[in-house]
Write a structure and sequence with these properties.
10 strands; alpha/beta; globular
């Protein structure tokens, strides 16, 4: 049986909808960032706080789920208090609580969801569960106050590579997705093969800047086909084979050229398919979202392609590219305005509704 809301929570939700300047608290803990943010009217970020676990996970070459969960447990209370302090607010000023509940590492999600549910129960505030992918899409609203649906969005991150048609603030249609590795996952794996530290994506981009992107031909016929789906596993395997073959023969290989060639192959696929999807579905705007949206090569390539195709291009400010709670609060605002509240038996899920 669903855990019922108190009358106060329903009242607060209605007050939020009617208020001219409601405040929403966002909480994010889907992977290795413990984050909180206070946002006014869905788009005005008043205060944020983030605790990153990168120094710890770098020792292991990637995220260790159990360590991530423990760190979230240790830090989440302090991070929420810091976000409230940075916003000049207290919990009594907050009208709703939004939290990432899918997708992500299940243990990490459980920490954020449990904390948010406890806070909502104790304060009588409405609770809104937010899908992490839609949160990344909403990051664009924080950068472009004038942006409104409909538009096409390419979501590229460590766990996801989706082309999503945004028909409304809470209405999404999946157009294309990766069949195997996500773009960010592929970046991290080839970076590790090169001996680069975690997180590999930014390190690979740094190395690629001094390389020739046409030195090696890395591609898959699938990414050049008519489907809007992606496949990055074959490109990754080709990269690793070139590297290993050179090592086995005792040959020197220009790692910067190889990194640049790999980056070109991935960003070309993301750009070509998302721009084509926007044009085919009659969208006038293409947005970029997700952790890989911080990749300057991808940002520039998409911007140039959109200009040539007569499309408007949006991409989040760098501070909203990686996991953050402001984007969760933003999407939570629109979920609440649409009447989509969560009950106090909200459970985390490793999969996005866009993957189901």
């Amino acid at each position: 049986m669903p855990v019922p809301y108190s009358e106060n929570a329903f009242k607060k939700a209605e007050e939020y909808r009617l208020s001219s300047s409601p405040l929403i608290l966002g909480i994010e803990s889907s992977c290795d960032e413990t984050a909180a943010a206070v946002v006014r009217c869905g788009r005005d970020v008043l205060g944020t706080a983030v605790h990153t676990q990168i120094p710890v996970h770098r020792l292991y070459g990637g995220v260790v789920p159990e360590i991530a969960s423990r760190s979230h447990t240790e830090r989440i209370g302090a991070v929420v208090r810091e976000a409230l302090a940075n916003a000049g607010a207290t919990l009594s000023d907050i009208s709703a609580i939004a939290v990432t509940y899918r997708p992500g590492l299940i243990g990490a999600l459980l920490v954020g969801v449990s904390y948010a549910k406890g806070l909502a129960f104790a304060s009588g505030l409405p609770l809104i569960g937010v899908d992490h992918i839609t949160g990344h899409i909403a990051a664009n609203y924080l950068t472009y106050p004038e942006l409104e649906p409909p538009f096409m969005c390419i979501v590229a991150s460590g766990g996801h590579s989706h082309i999503v048609r945004v028909d409304g603030y809470t209405d999404f249609t999946l157009i294309g997705r990766t069949r195997d590795d996500a773009a960010g996952e592929a970046f991290d794996k080839v970076a590790r093969a090169l001996g680069l530290p975690y997180p590999g994506g930014p390190e690979l981009e740094k190395l690629a800047k001094s390389g020739d992107p046409e030195a090696f031909r890395l591609h898959t016929a699938f990414n050049e086909g008519e489907s809007f789906d992606f496949s990055f596993s074959g490109i990754k395997t080709a990269f690793v084979n070139i590297l290993h073959n050179a090592e086995q023969k005792g040959e020197q290989i220009n790692k910067a050229d190889l990194a640049a060639s790999f980056q070109r192959a991935v960003t070309d696929a993301l750009t070509n398919k998302s721009v084509r999807a926007a044009k085919e579905y009659g969208c006038k705007t293409l947005a970029l979202a997700g952790g890989v949206s911080a990749n300057t090569c991808l940002r520039e390539k998409l911007e140039n392609a959109c200009k040539k195709s007569g499309l408007s291009f949006c991409r989040p400010d760098m501070k909203y590219c990686t996991d953050n709670a402001a984007m969760i609060a933003c999407q939570g605002h629109y979920e609440l305005m649409a009447g989509r509240l969560s009950t106090l038996d909200l459970d985390p899920s490793a999969a996005s509704f866009l993957q189901m």
